[in-house]
Amino acid sequence: MDDSWPDPRTGVKSPNAYPYFDAEPDDGYDGDVRRRGRRRRWGRVLLALLVVLVLLAIGGYFYLDSRLKRESALDYPGRLADTPGTNWLVVGSDSRAGLSRQQRKDFATGKAAGRRTDSMMLLHTGAGGTTLVSLPRDSYVPIPGHGSNKLNAAFAFGGPKLLVRTVEQATGIRIDHYAEIGFGGFVGMVDAIGGVEMCIKEPMRDPKAGLNLKAGCQNLTGGQALGYVRTRASARADLDRVDRQRQFFGALIKKSSSPGVLLNPFRSIPLALNGTGNFLVDDGDHLLDLSRMMWSMRGVSGGDGVTTTVPIGGAGSSPAAGAYITWDRTKALQLFNALKSDKAVPKSVITK
Length: 352
Known about the structure:
By secondary structure, this protein is α+β, with helices and mostly antiparallel strands. The protein has helices spanning 29-67, 101-106, 151-171, 183-192, 222-230, 238-256, 259-262, 265-278, 287-301, 329-340; strands spanning 5-6, 13-14, 69-71, 86-93, 117-125, 131-134, 140-143, 147-150, 177-181, 196-200, 204-206, 211-213, 216-220, 279-282, 306-309, 312-318, 322-327. It contains 10 helices and 17 strands. The protein is globular and about 95 Å long.
């Protein structure tokens, strides 16, 4: 009886041809099969890892987006028609939420409840470039339903919605997005990235803001940074303060978006959690919008754009508002008309 089997590789019958009893040296056929099998397994593993990473990224985005606080700020009857480009109203409030009792004492924030505007900036991006304009809180402007008063009074009277309405009517520019952060969120963001380096020209001391800084370049902690952007203890008071606020926010955004922070999970994760947990945006805004805003501010701080304050015309006082400042109507109109038309801002209206 012929018990030989055809060799599947050569077709020649041989007693040892059956694969299970093949004693001949490996000629590479089985090795090729094993290598191809290993490659397929590694391919499936890499594909599975890629799918997991994509799902984590998507899940992380929606989780962080859900942490944003939201409030209707852009919905009121009779709004201005849309204007070209994209416009953000960026507000720093004096909300103490998120600060411990000891922090309130250390940072000299007081115990006031609620929130009031401590800084306001208009960020415009479009074909005419990117422009960041400080709106001093002591600006004397008409507030719908409340006569004329300081700009920050609009927030006190009616929150973000009335503030947006007041800014739109004072500038003629339609606001597309709103972002607000309080004291606690600001301190947390600065500390999450390990502080922000600033170069101080001369010593700064202001007990009312919990500030005591020496001259020179130094890394400011969250508490020191809060005092730095709050203090009005200088010759030009609020006008000096808005300059420092633009300067510091630019440095904060620049460091937050640097590879040293984004690629370091011990920095990027606390920053993302702290930022999204403390930012308040309009109920139509999302994390992607906020990321675009921060990227635009990063460009401005890097010199790719214009930073300025509304041209100031003078000062005054009234029983209702107390001391206030007024805008230079001619120059302010030129500034806002340029932004409203999405054109480059004339150099003659840029103030430093």
